[in-house]
Amino acid sequence: MTTITATTTTTTTAEPRSPENHAAELEHRIARDPGSFRVLTGDRPTGSLHLGHYFGSLRNRVRLQDLGVDVIVLIPDYQVITDRDTAERLAEYTDGLLLDYLALGIDPARSTVFCHSAVPALNQLMLPFLSLVSVAELNRNPTVKDEIAHSRQSTVSGLMLTYPVHQAADILSCKGNLVPVGRDQAPHLEVTRTIARRFNERYGRVFPEPDILLSAAPLLLGTDGTKMSKSRANSVPLSATADETARLIKGATTDADRLITYDPGARPNVSSLVLLAALCLDRDPHEVAAEIGDGGAAALKRTVTDAVNTHLAPFRARRAEYAKDLTYVRSVLRAGNERANALAEATLDEVREAMGAFR
Ligand code: TRP
């Protein structure tokens, strides 16, 4: 087998590296030359975005956009059927995501929002990409294994097993080189990097090897004490009203100790609430806990509710304004789809050419 050495502008070391250490170095490079980065990231339209998304990733996207990075947000509608038979309420959830993005400050003049189903060239990359990974590699992906374990389906679909390959198509169709996601997505990013590297080795350099940018924000727990998730009915949606927010936080699991402390190891539920207030108030969680003192869970929940509602009030006001003009909101997606089509078609042309295929 002939191996073509890829000439790359990014590092191609094969040794495992710590994504945490890597994040600091990446931030320096972003600050120096934001224009050399293109972010590709997204949220499956399976529910409402919540506070966990906000502090874990949404805020960061707006920050990167404002630094001058080219931010592309994908609404992966096709991937909804990875672990369910049909895509329910797809149009409603897609509108909701668009409203959230716009209200949070994603600026359509600088950033792009698009969806899978509108970009055929992206999906065509699946075929050459599937040839670059082995079944054994797909079978060992820990995040896929976890999704299979939690799936509501009794059999594992081919789409589930090849999900990381489709995600590689998402990222590489636009030649994204920076992917800001949570830790659970690291194995998927490795698949993307592997596919990019193998394609480049086999056919000549077409793709960047994208870097993962791990979110620094710690995980927020849902109101039931497990990971906050849009499909588990344990989240505080960004779009909730102030009253709904109060009710949801009131129902959150706590413990019987009246003295409020910040100790995530020993008191995960109470600490997650303290952290949520601290993030909203931009304060140290130990200080927030100390101020509540021996007020117990009721005082803690009052503090959290006020902090969340105050922090989100401007966002919610903007969201309500956008909701009055869905024609405009949907036009943002249409324009984004157009740009994503242009990018993905150009990439597919390069892929065909590199593979020596007819056009
Ligand atoms: N897999 C991501 C998730 O479950 C969503 C996603 C789809 C994504 N395509 C992507 C994230 C491309 C980053 C880049 O949250």
UniProtKB/TrEMBL annotation:
The keyword Ribonucleoprotein does not apply. Residues 1-21 are annotated as: Disordered. Residues 1-14 have a biased composition (Low complexity). It holds the Pfam family tRNA-synt_1b. The keyword Zinc-finger does not apply. Gene3D superfamilies: HUPs, Tyrosyl-Transfer RNA Synthetase. One of its GO terms (molecular function) is tryptophan-tRNA ligase activity. Coiled coil: none annotated. Keywords: Aminoacyl-tRNA synthetase, ATP-binding, Ligase, Nucleotide-binding, Protein biosynthesis. InterPro entries: aa-tRNA-synth_I_CS (IPR001412), aa-tRNA-synth_Ic (IPR002305), Rossmann-like_a/b/a_fold (IPR014729), Trp-tRNA-ligase (IPR002306), Trp-tRNA_synthetase (IPR050203). Its EC number is 6.1.1.2. PANTHER family: TRYPTOPHAN--TRNA LIGASE, MITOCHONDRIAL. Belongs to the class-I aminoacyl-tRNA synthetase family. This is Tryptophan--tRNA ligase. It comes from Streptomyces sindenensis.
